[in-house]
Amino acid sequence: MSDEPFDEEPAEHHRYRRYLQDLEDVPEADEAALVATVLRDPVSSMAEAAVNRHLECRASKLLTDPAFTAWARSMATVIWDRPFLTRRLREWTLLRAIARDEPWTAEEVTTASDWFQRTASAAQIVTSAEALRLLAERGRSRRVRNAASRRLHHPDQQPTVG
Fold first, then answer.
1. Residue 162: per-residue pLDDT
2. Which of the 8 DSSP states describes residue 8?
3. Cβ-based neighbours of 139, under 8 Å, separated by 6 or more
4. How many other C-beta atoms lie within 10 A of the C-beta of residue 50?
5. Phi, psi (5° rounding) for residue 49?
6. Which of 64, 80, 128, 146 has its CA 20 to 30 A from that of 33?
């Protein structure tokens, strides 16, 4: 039997919270280096979860900002060997393209993750009738198809997809 208390929180939980705080406070010039440091943590699933949360926060803030492109390029050089993070960054870039009426393909949207399809069908920033029609017709889940259809027919209503 161990002398350790059963209710003690694992060390990686403390590191996760510290990483989130450090990533939130990091100056732009040091962001890529800090992301690389976090990804070297011995608990890779925790490290990737922290970086993913950071990517979500930063991408959503920068989505229509011209700085997004340089930021995404910088992050891509750090996460290139992490398939989940690479895909998520690519999907944020696709969401940006749709929101800014830049080129994208139907295949990119229909083969994107469930997360992307839910986000694109619900995000108020996505106003492309073409993208919403595609999701309404060929979205992977009924939830996505219904949300996109509602957005097409009632663009001023708040979406209920989360």
1. 44
2. P
3. 117, 121, 145, 148
4. 24
5. -65, -40
6. 64
Other Cβ atoms within 10 Å of 62 Cβ, number: 17
Mean pLDDT by 10 residues, the chain (162 residues): 67 96 97 98 98 97 96 98 98 98 98 97 94 98 97 72 42
> Quick one: pLDDT at residue 161?
41
User: Which structure tokens are listed for 28?
Assistant: 């732009």
Whole-number Å distance between alpha carbons of 96 and 131: 12
Residues 6+ apart with CB under 8 A from 5: none
Tokens of 45: 């699933």
Predicted local confidence at residue 4, as pLDDT: 58
Residues 74 and 80: beta-carbon distance below 8 Å: no
> Where does residue 151 rank: exposed (0-12), middle (13-18), buried (19+ CB within 10 A)?
buried
- Give Dmax (Cα) for the chain: 63
Beta-carbon contacts of 162 under 8 Å, excluding residues fewer than 6 positions away, are 118, 122
CA distance 146 to 151: 9
